[in-house]
Amino acid sequence: MDGRWSLMPFPDSILDQTLLTSGSALLLALVGALFIGMAKAGLAGCGLVSVVLFAETLGAKASTGVVLPLLIAADLMGFWLLRRGGSWKQVWPLAPPAILGVVIGWWLLDKLDNLLARQAIGWVILALLALKLLLDWKRDQLAHLHRHAIFTWGIGVAAGVTTMLANAAGPVMAVYLLAHRHGKADYLGVFTRFFLFINLVKVPFSAQIGLINGPSLWTNALLLPAVVGGIFLGWRVVKVMSQKVFEWAMFVFALLAAIRLVA
């Protein structure tokens, strides 16, 4: 055991099979995985924070391939829990533009080096944080947008590009669902179905450019329990803490971290 395990002792034989290079990296990745689960439990702000933590820990491009299977695992759990809300027919209008967006994002991600990918993820997060502010300010004005086909296609393409580049299209999808004024159960059901669908679509694209591979999958196996723990922790936090206060704390954290990515 050498000095690189000072923060979290862990067997070299296991960690060497993964993309994690130190005990510190493992610790940050576990926190990121925990935040993925918390985001799926309803604390949406955790999702952007997890993107930043993984980009810092693994590098921007490699992190997208590691995060994707973790998201799919969380989506499967979420779909099972929320299967009575919404329906697949509410997802299909978004499918063609979202797939187009994934193709565009796949092409961009393949062309970017790690530095540019890091900056792109940072700018995507800053744009999504600005979108959150717009949603909070103009929520009622979204009611009529869903009547226009160009709105559906614009949201679908934007969601596809954003999720392929940064696994962080939640705020984009929120615009679409708020415009349709779904009830809470349908909102969560459609949200979960869409991301389960689009994340599965992304798998062959991520594998083709080498972002999903043997070491990334071993990394997933190591981090998956933290995702499950995050789901249960998220449910507890929602019950005992004001979600608004928590979300704004995550907003500030994500803002500072995104600025660090683009600097």
UniProtKB/TrEMBL annotation:
Keyword S-adenosyl-L-methionine set for record: no
InterPro entries: TM_pro_TauE-like, TSUP
Compartments where found: Cell membrane
Cellular component terms (Gene Ontology): plasma membrane
Annotated Pfam families: TauE
Keywords (A to Z) from UniProt: Cell membrane, Membrane, Transmembrane, Transmembrane helix, Transport
Membrane-traversing stretches: 25-54, 66-85, 91-109, 116-135, 155-178, 190-211, 217-238, 245-262
Membrane-topology descriptor: Multi-pass membrane protein
UniProt feature coiled coil, ranges: none
Similarity section: Belongs to the 4-toluene sulfonate uptake permease (TSUP) (TC 2.A.102) family.
Matches recorded under PANTHER family: MEMBRANE TRANSPORTER PROTEIN YDHB-RELATED, TRANSMEMBRANE PROTEIN YFCA
Protein name as annotated: Probable membrane transporter protein
Native source organism of the sequence: Phragmitibacter flavus
